[in-house]
């Protein structure tokens, strides 16, 4: 098992470490290039957040008149952000919602205003003219890494129920992550849950999974073989 590597901040670490006195133009080009990359990264995460919520709701309105009407109704009940135009969506089938916040708070017929810049989601219930719930939009950098990725989860604590709970938690947090139940590991007494990145390219996702499972980043133990999936988790007794 290796120690968890510290992850760079995608925004602050784009600054040049040191400008060369003999090559001032090179420093400016480096800064300009990386600031553009940082902006593109933030934009990508923002788009992912909106798409994730929109897909969870299933129906998005492009009717500007409806958006204006809903904003006026909601604005009469609470103070709305004025520095961005929200995305408006309608809940048409609660049973198909995948976002946990929406699934627990929304009902069919509700209108949802999504303010990404202000990290706010507002669920409005027209039938009773009330705010049903207000939530927070979080920009999860692990989302793009989870898209289409595969993971094997193995029971390393001789506790199938615990392993199934870990699988359920992962699927709830990242429905786009393809999870395989790997059954029992060769060793059955792992004290700590291990999250392994077989691609060495999914640092954000590994960190997120480590939090979900209360585990730690690690490598494939000598007692185990490397799974054919992008990532693997060996559930330990501490989860």
Beta strand %? 15-25%
Helix-strand sequence: HEHEHEEEHEHEEHEE
> Order of strands in the sheet with the most strands?
1-2-3-4-5
Decide which structural class fits the backbone: alpha/beta
Distance between the termini: 17 Å
Largest sheet: 5 strands, antiparallel
Q: What's the average pLDDT? A: 80
Radius of gyration (Å): 22 Å
Q: How many β-strands, per DSSP?
A: 10
Q: What is the count of DSSP helices, taking H or I runs of 4+ residues?
A: 6
Unreliable residue stretches: 1-26, 37-49
Which outline best applies? elongated
Helix content: 25-40%
Short characterization:
This protein is an alpha/beta fold and 239 residues long. The protein has six helices and ten strands; from the N terminus they run H-E-H-E-H-E-E-E-H-E-H-E-E-H-E-E. The protein has helices at 24-57, 64-75, 100-105, 143-146, 160-173, 203-213, and strands at 58-60, 87-91, 111-115, 120-125, 130-136, 150-155, 178-184, 194-197, 216-218, 231-235.
Describe what this molecule looks like in 3D.
The chain is of the alpha/beta class and 239 residues long. Helix content is 34%, strand content 21%. The protein has six helices and ten strands, in the order αβαβαβββαβαββαββ. It has helices at residues 24-57, 64-75, 100-105, 143-146, 160-173, 203-213, and strands spanning 58-60, 87-91, 111-115, 120-125, 130-136, 150-155, 178-184, 194-197, 216-218, 231-235. The strands form two sheets. The chain has a five-stranded antiparallel beta sheet with strand order 1-2-3-4-5, with helices on both faces. The protein has a five-stranded mixed beta sheet with strand order 7-6-10-8-9, covered by helices on one side. It is elongated and about 60 Å long.
